[in-house]
Write a structure and sequence with these properties.
Helix content: 40-55%
Low-confidence stretches: none
Number of domains: 2
Largest sheet: 6 strands, parallel
Strand content: 15-25%
CATH class of the largest domain: Alpha Beta
CATH architecture of the largest domain: Alpha-Beta Complex
Number of strands: 12
Bound molecules: adenosine-5-diphosphoribose
Number of helices: 11
Shape: globular
CATH superfamily of the largest domain: Lactate dehydrogenase/glycoside hydrolase, family 4, C-terminal
Distance between the termini: 43 Å
Radius of gyration: 19 Å
Order of helices and strands: EHEHHEEHEHEHEEEHHHHEEEH
Strand order of the largest sheet: 3-2-1-4-5-6
Mean pLDDT: 95
Oligomer: single chain
């Protein structure tokens, strides 16, 4: 059987890391697409030359021609500009919306059967626009945010409790931004919910609140340190986890930005929710019941996403 084809639209920091991970994990052959002359070809060749040492079987190709993504099984989109210090994800809206239009058309014409994972920020608005521009079914277009946000939460919790990250699970809902909603009662250490661990004296409510805030600010913390760009190792790893669940029909239950219509009280918006990702794409959205406080945080997050979607409609008439 032919190897799956993975098209990476954007061959920058995240795109290059995605290509390396996809090859090392032998998820399929990789096509790196970018408009920056020489970048995709250079990265593809460099990664291919790591193959003999690492021992992976995967072909890598760099291109600036959409025809080369033809028939891709998975497209992961990072095309656009990242944040610089002092910028919010929302500041990227105008520039990256134009990029989503070009990318959406490229995917529609060349890879209409692909499972599409968007990473470009501001995520929840960009994935909404990408689905509209591409015209692909909503269950085949989703955004990567929740896996990354919950990975950050899990990492910080594992440091606080001095336990393996493998035994920490965490749930983060809502938009990918300052309004994200970390759900502490569904976040656990080996099944013990965080509120119980507070009662058991493993940590204090103050420390837990600080970890929640650090999770919300996780992207900005890295931007502040790097100064010339934003996070790329963990975002790429998170998207690969989603792509692998699709390609291997693992049916992992992962938080991702999914099209919500008739769930979570929403009517046609992308926002971070628990999903099952399998061969059908986003096969199921787990419509959990939120407490009053969680619902208020979720509503606040959704309002921020809706504001950005309205701004997109204002910029591009075809989205209205
Ligand atoms: N088509 C294809 N590629 C494009 C286009 C386009 N129309 N416009 C820009 N690009 C490419 C750039 O040439 C660059 O190589 O997108 C790439 C983006 O890479 P980086 O600048 O290194 O950004 P990266 O850190 O990978 O982040 C990409 O993901 O997390 C988000 O906020 C982040 O929106 C940003 C995106």
């Amino acid at each position: 059987m032919a190897r799956p084809k993975i098209a990476l639209i954007g061959a920058g920091q995240i795109g290059g890391t995605l290509a390396h991970l996809a090859a090392m994990k032998e998820l399929g052959d990789v096509v790196l697409f970018d408009i920056s002359e020489g970048t995709p070809e250079g990265k593809a060749l460099d990664i291919a030359e790591s193959g003999p040492s690492e021992g992976f079987d995967a072909r890598l190709k760099g291109t600036s021609d959409y025809a080369d993504i033809a028939g891709a099984d998975v497209c992961i989109v990072t095309a656009g500009v990242p944040r610089k210090p002092g910028m919010s994800r929302d500041d990227l809206l105008g520039i990256n919306l134009k990029v989503m239009k070009a990318v959406g058309e490229g995917i529609r014409e060349n890879a209409p059967d692909a499972f599409v994972i968007c990473i470009t920020n501001p995520l929840d608005a960009m994935v909404w626009a990408l689905q509209k521009f591409s015209g692909l079914p909503t269950e085949k277009v989703c955004g990567m945010a929740g896996v990354l946000d919950s990975a950050r939460f899990r990492h910080f919790l594992s440091l606080e409790f001095d336990v393996s990250m493998k035994d920490v699970t965490a749930f983060v809902l809502g938009g990918h931004g300052d309004t994200m909603v970390p759900l502490t009662r569904y976040s656990t250490v080996a099944g013990i919910p965080l509120p119980d661990l507070v009662k058991m004296g493993w940590t204090s409510q103050e420390k837990l609140d600080a970890i929640v805030q650090r999770t919300r600010d996780g992207g900005a913390e890295i931007v502040g340190l790097l100064k010339t760009g934003s996070a790329f190792y963990a975002p790429a790893t998170s998207a690969i986890e989603m792509a692998e669940s699709y390609l291997k029909d693992q049916k992992r239950l992962l938080p991702c930005a999914a099209y919500c219509d008739g769930v979570f009280g929403l009517d046609g918006f992308y926002v971070g929710v628990p999903t099952v990702i399998g061969a059908g794409g986003v096969e199921r959205i787990v419509d959990i019941k939120l407490t009053k406080d969680e619902q208020a945080m979720f509503d606040n997050s959704v309002a921020a996403v809706k504001g950005l979607v309205e701004a997109c409609k204002g910029i591009d008439d075809s989205l209205a």
